[in-house]
């Protein structure tokens, strides 16, 4: 079915979930019931920091091609729980098992950013676009968030598929996960085919990872600080377009494709 969609629709847009559609900072509301607002905000930030750090460390440790090396992959649900424990320990506080379980359940119902709902409503009218969710999360976590969360659930039908990294057992920005997305979308791994897909993400590391394999990428700069990531200095290491909110993505993509369909140039959408 995915291959049929890939040939029918002109453009594939893969939306990152955590930090793009869903605000990981919104978990602070649940944490505040235990620690107060200020402490909760700090904990939420630390929790997210360790969550991402764990994925990057595991990417470096996974060596499944060597028989005597243990596969170090951990599902994102375990990473999320373990990074919470790390954040709590670093902050000198603790929670009982029931409270941690409650927080993990709340993670499936994170709030969306304010610009998400109107953008997805508009996207539903774009018949030439195939929108999918593309996430580090487990299939269970992401499906629960997309279909069951109060904010995102009403727009679940906008997404034609949910693609996660579980099958490849790697995390963004490992090239394998972007090639996995291409396979799911019926695309080859050629530069031309990869360049026909767009990533939409609020995470710079994700944008750089997608661009490294030839994908186009729209970086969502809600803070308005501009692109500051300096890992890769070439244009190929920068977003194809920068938008201030999800509502600017489709327009920005169209402008880019109209001006130079095969260009990897860097433009700012006002």
UniProtKB/TrEMBL annotation:
Q: What are the recorded GO MF terms, alphabetically?
A: hydrolase activity, acting on acid halide bonds, in C-halide compounds; phosphatase activity
The chain's coiled-coil residues are: none
Which SUPFAM superfamilies does this one have?
Answer: HAD-like
Q: What are the entry keywords? A: Hydrolase
One Pfam family from the record: Hydrolase
Q: Which domain of life is it from?
A: Eukaryota
Q: Which PANTHER family does the protein's record reference?
A: HALOACID DEHALOGENASE, TYPE II (AFU_ORTHOLOGUE AFUA_2G07750)-RELATED (PTHR43316:SF3), HYDROLASE, HALOACID DELAHOGENASE-RELATED (PTHR43316)
Q: Which NCBIfam families match?
A: HAD-SF-IA-v2 (TIGR01493), HAD_type_II (TIGR01428)
**Entry's family note:** Belongs to the HAD-like hydrolase superfamily. S-2-haloalkanoic acid dehalogenase family.
Q: What is this protein called?
A: Haloacid dehalogenase
Tell me the organism: Lepraria neglecta
Q: The organism's lineage?
A: Eukaryota, Fungi, Dikarya, Ascomycota, Pezizomycotina
